[in-house]
Write a structure and sequence with these properties.
disordered N terminus, mainly beta, single chain
């Protein structure tokens, strides 16, 4: 279904999160801080919407404590050589996204799993209610570690057995091209340490967190002579700087009709689809594909005849999807062939799969597919043709098809072969 302000935020309980590109990702980050009493239970993540400048991603998150170790059971992951302090508590959290109404009220606080966190805690001094707070793990495919503190604000309030904490962390060693970030929480600790149910009951356990992730700003640093330095789905202006628009100089198929584009706006949001198949490409070497295993994000960008961007779907570099890396190299080390991206959850905007294959003239190919309610589809049926679909990489490379004469062009589907 077409993306609107209301259906992006007011989704049905149990559905997946939505992200448009200034992402407000509702992530569950339950950080429990219980130094002898601090426990954390997750608050789910809201959807992600990212700015066109892509300098900041904002995440709202909740965590669910799965286990706790104390004393001799604390593992080597909490040693002072790693955290900078001697931990007395070690917690494992699963992270979940949240579903918000269009008024910002949480209507589903256990939407989809978005990550895993490992937390180490200890008082800053004997008897102190301020805790050292170390975290390492992954949120929405971004790995990091963080150090900060949690401070007790209330005890036995709003009911006996509850404690309220506020926490702050600086995020370090972030993947995905981020240069830094912060995490803040408001956390509730109850007499029940593990699981969702608080004691006394009825409270969202353990933390509601806000995470800010920052990337360097590229706008203003770009000129035609210096090459592509703009963010994905942006282009250089003749006077320098970056604006939303298609890139110039993309690789195109060597024959007409060898790129295929399909957009489907289904009655059920979960059945919405985007597919791009690009074959018979010019000579493309393996190094030209960049380094998506570590640094180079990819994005599918679709523009209309005016240059307006109709759709953007992203495959972030690196990351973990479920229990496996999102990206893998195709072919062996001696004869690499390309890369494949797979994310069954389709975070953050239902881009489920992407394949990049290097090859000699006529052999290179790329494909992109996505399915689900988080696809930010434009209104179909009255598109300004031709459409230009570009698969762009942060290393400056891109793969394009132009679509002027669709075989299907209705309010529910667009289907065409390239010019």
């Amino acid at each position: 279904m077409q993306a609107t302000a209301s259906n992006q935020l007011d989704r049905k309980p149990g559905s997946r999160r939505h992200r448009g590109r200034r992402r407000l990702i509702g992530l569950q980050l339950g950080f429990c801080v219980l130094a002898g009493l601090l426990m954390v239970r997750p608050a789910r993540v809201a959807s992600a919407v990212q700015t066109d400048g892509e300098v900041e991603d904002v995440i709202i998150a909740r965590s669910l404590r799965i286990s706790r170790n104390t004393g001799a059971n604390i593992t080597a992951g909490c040693t002072a050589s790693i955290t900078g302090f001697t931990a007395i508590i070690e917690d494992i959290f699963e992270m979940y996204s949240v579903n918000l109404s269009n008024q910002g009220i949480v209507i589903d606080d256990a939407w989809y799993k978005t990550g895993d966190l490992h937390v180490c805690l200890a008082p800053t001094a004997p008897g102190s209610t301020v805790l050292n707070f170390w975290t390492d793990g992954t949120l929405t495919g971004v790995s990091f570690h963080a150090i900060g503190t949690c401070t007790e604000r209330f005890s036995n309030f709003p009911e006996t057995g509850l404690r309220m904490f506020s926490c702050y962390q600086d995020l370090k060693n972030l993947s995905g091209g981020y240069i830094g970030g912060t995490l803040t929480t408001n956390t509730i600790s109850s007499l029940q340490l593990i699981g969702e149910e608080s004691n006394p009951p009825g409270y969202t356990q353990a933390s509601i967190a806000t995470v800010r992730l920052w990337k360097p700003r590229s706008a203003g640093a770009c000129t035609v002579s210096t090459g592509i330095t703009c963010s994905l789905c942006e282009t250089c202006t003749p006077m320098g700087g970056c604006v939303i628009g298609p890139r110039a100089g993309c690789k195109v198929p060597m024959q007409p009709g060898k790129a295929q584009l399909q957009l489907k706006d289904a009655v059920r949001d979960a059945a919405d689809q985007v597919k791009l198949k690009w074959t018979t490409g010019p000579t493309t070497t393996f190094p030209e594909l960049g380094s998506p295993l570590t640094t180079d994000d990819y994005a599918l960008c679709i523009f209309d005849a005016t240059g307006a961007r109709l759709l953007k779907m992203t495959a972030p570099a690196g990351g973990t999807c479920g229990t496996k890396p999102c990206w893998k190299q195709l072919g062996g080390a001696a004869a690499p062939k390309g890369y494949a991206y797979k994310d069954r959850d389709g975070l953050p905007d239902d881009l489920d799969g992407l394949n990049l294959k290097a090859g000699e003239a006529g052999k290179a190919s790329v494909s992109v597919k996505g399915k689900g309610e988080n696809i930010p589809l434009p209104a179909l049926g009255a598109l300004a043709l031709p459409l230009r679909a570009q698969l762009q990489s942060e290393n400056g490379q891109c793969y394009e098809g132009t679509f002027s004469t669709p075989s299907v062009n209705t309010p529910t589907q667009f289907k065409a072969k390239s010019d």
